[in-house]
Predict the 3D structure of the following.
Amino acid sequence: MNFRPKVAIIGAGFAGMAVVRALRDTDAEITLVDRNNHHLFQPFLFQVATSILEPAEIATPIRSLVHDMANVRVEMREAKRIDAARRVVIMTEGDDLAYDILVVATGARTSYFGHESEWAQHAQGLKTLPDALAARNRLLTAFERAELETDPAKQARNMTVVVVGGGPAGVAITGTISEFVQRTLPSDFRKIDLRRARVVLVEAGPRLLSAFSEAHSTYAMQALRGAGVEVRLGVPVSNVDAEGVMIGGERIEAATVLWCAGVQGVPLARTLGAPLAPNGTVKVDKDFSIPGHQDCFVIGDAAHLIGPDGRPVPGLASIAQQQGRFVGELIAARLAGSVPPTAPEPFLPNKLATITRHEGIAEFAGRSITGFVAWLMWGLLHLRTLSDGYSKIAILGNWLRLLITYRRSARLIVEAPSETNAGESPAMKAA
């Protein structure tokens, strides 16, 4: 009887799926575990939250992605902790999962910088599909309530949106919300004056998009202000409650608060017993294994790796896929007894960000690009990464309609299961 090595992969995001693809022609017995049944395209979450796209357009069933891989078994369940000494993953339900080789690709979750218990229920994170639906619900519900409100102060609060975090996600959703409020909603409401609506972007640092050049940070700020956004720099959030936020010494009454300010490692990764970075991500060796356990790898947003610029490698799809590809090829080489691949050097990826429906910035191959061309590059490069061809067509159709008419078809308020669980990550496998 031939021995079939057991490879367990926790997390079906960009990194985890790249490992699976690299192992498709091996004789390994692969178990792919995720608490969701879908692979999520996170870069487009903000477009679900702002009624541009539908959830099904940015998520693909995991089983459909591996249906032609006979050596892959998919399990929709959660991992509770990892016993690296015994090579066992303790599950929240069902039998525990034994492995010969383990890959942890659980992603990250929203960080409220130590205030999770107080702020998460009031400031909606944006890491999962339910998060995006919950954000959409909050935004649309607030304006529906404003339409019914007779108290001017309460009406103003319902028409105020605060976004915390001036990184790419925060900038993208802020610009999109401002256009939504100014260009789409006025034709839907009869009573409220949407010219009085406020969209506020709060960034604790001295500038937006700190990973980009200062010139691009300035461009983004000017573009947002031109779109009617109030930008507050250098003022950290000091409190969030059911009625709004405190930034510095200023109180902003707001019915919708969206949190795009930070990430942290998930609890499952911490059970490995490996050294952790301050944000709870796992410090890994050059080949992405953890010290003392060459059979256990951590990749993607769950891993802490320093790039050539001296900063932690950002959580981007291209980087996660590169890491997953390498680890998959390394495992395949070990199983075949062949020469292992050389560990990839951390690279500085092309930087792209979208600001509004026709404004973007790009630092691409040493070039600086702004405006519509940069926005188009952002969209096309992300579309290329999507797994589902039908979704690409549907998304292109929605974008074209938005460019021409400002209309958005997904303006629906629906119940999202995790609206009381703001901030959890799609790949978080432990409570």
The longest strand covers residues 29-34. The chain has two domains: 6-35+77-111+263-336, 116-261+351-405. Confidence is low (pLDDT under 50) at residues 418-431. Residues 6-35+77-111+263-336 form a domain with the FAD/NAD(P)-binding domain fold (CATH 3.50.50.60).
